Please model this.
Amino acid sequence: MYAESIEIQNKSGLHARPATTFIKAAQKFKSDITIEKDSKQANAKSIVSLLSLGASKGSIVKITATGEDEIQAINTLIELIKSKFGEE
Amino acid sequence: MIYNGIIGSGGIAIGRAYILKKETVTINKDFIDDNRLNEELNQVDEAVELTKAQIARIKERASEDFSAEEVAIFEAHLMILEDPELINGIKELIINEKLHSSNAAAKVIENFMGMFSNIEDEYLKERAADIRDVGDRLINNLLGVTFCDIGNFDTDVIIVANDLTPSDTALMDKKHVKGFATDIGGRTSHTAIMARSLEIPAVLGLGNISAKVRNDELIIVDGTGGIVIVDPDENTLSEYHQKIEKYDNYKNELKSVSALPSVTLDGKHIDIAANIGGPSDVGAVTEYGADGVGLYRTEFLYMDRDRLPDEDEQFEAYKAVAEKLKEKPVIIRTLDIGGDKKLSYLPMQEEMNPFLGFRAIRLCLEMRNMFKTQLKAILRASIYNNIFIMYPMISSLDEVIEANKVLEEAKSELRAKGIGFDEEIKCGVMIEIPSAAISADILITEVDFFSIGTNDLCQYTLAVDRMNEKISNLYQPFHPAVLRLIKNVIDQSHKAGKFTGMCGELAGDPTATLLLLGMGLDEFSMSASSMLMVKKIVRSVSFEEAKNIAEHALKLKTSTQIREYCEMALKKLKIDINQEDGKCTPKV
Model:
């Protein structure tokens, strides 16, 4: 198991297009991946689950991956959040 | 019986009602035996695959008739179907609770909907509707129920329903469906947008019409008047048959003229273009034979939502228009808000004089990031090589220079990312403030074209609030001062070898056509319904004659004299602009 926490920095948060981008990136990995906010947990490969988390700009989220490619998964997803999905 | 509703899409249709009822399916609530477990799980996989295939087919059909924006709805549907929580959730309920697959699916979907139901967020509300649409389809497939089919009719019908989902509309038999009448929905609902792109008359928000009308009952959908008449009497019916005939005559005449070029008798070509608010208006524009889009108002992209549209979303909207207009020019006006146009998510201070206040380019130059995002989206869409950029509310050269700086930043950011755009893109300004009109010779040094916004130019020049009915007699676009400003703008652009268009109401006023043509206006941009008459006038006069008319008109001293003289000139050409027989310019 490998985990890392990060602050959501893009304007619209994990919502709309960034949410879709995030899900698609997560689905490329074999590991089980969860994303947690305020002790609410969501499946990082499920669009419905992720949207219901309501992770807006400024939220701190913890991403946890379990599986053979867990480190790579976390690094990729953290980088994606850092890139602000091309938003402000 | 007359029902009042909301206009979804104009036009009139008479036909037999087809009541579209969503079948209330019976979900099997029995528990399953252990030996059926595998069969039940396989059924889930099969139903998901079948549903995916159906949606992919709908998406394909939709892409023939609808824009990218509408097709994207079905991509969201596919994404929901591929959600692991959906499939695994259903399977877990089957395994752990021994539920029948349809029951398990219904529970998971209910649970999904519940996650979004109390959230005040337009985006999530739409996703909830998507989940409902996909969920119903999946459950029907699990039960082996055929999804109600409006894809094939033998005769013409009018669909009466509680509501229509995007998949209903996409799969519909477009040859035989002549109109829509629905219980719910408004002007901006999916149904309205799709009805307008298909040019099918639609009246929405009719309360409970789907429960009141019977199958095969004769009904009239008057999408222009916003009413539905059920079981009309003989008189009403013949009245409406006449209305349809007039409308068809008008459409036919329209079609015959719309294909002809906008040239004067002596061969001078004029661009007759349309003002639009978004991709959904393009259908009418091409049908009316427009030479391009003279004003693309981008405000609508920013309205009725809770946050700014991002670059991709804007790019899609600009691209959709540029693509459909092919090689014809599209002038995109950058964001013009403030004043009377406010955005809920962008708090602005109350102002004493909003029309003289913080709006349009003034606001964009303050909120540079928002402005740059829009410019980047426009630039990206410019790969079709027919896009022009236009800044609104320019009062001085400083603003042009400043706006161009932001444009250069946008360009270099795109270059750095290796994203292509039209390096030769033309950039112009709207002339709607007297200072801009007077200093047109200065402004033209930094821009490629002008477009005159007569509504504001008139109110600023004459100091007349155009919303104030008490002084509406003073609002005179034919005022000599307004015309002199217009003349100066056109002349200065021509001196520099550039062009001037007009996108205010005066451009679509047939009384002004001869005058403006004679003053040398290069492009007239107006709402689609005015284009036929203006084109007819342009085609019935020589440019030389129009010049004489304009020269004489500009020597007159009052607005009344000028207007009367213009009306006289039209009469001499035997053009009657007040025809009321539905032949020329009825309100469409």
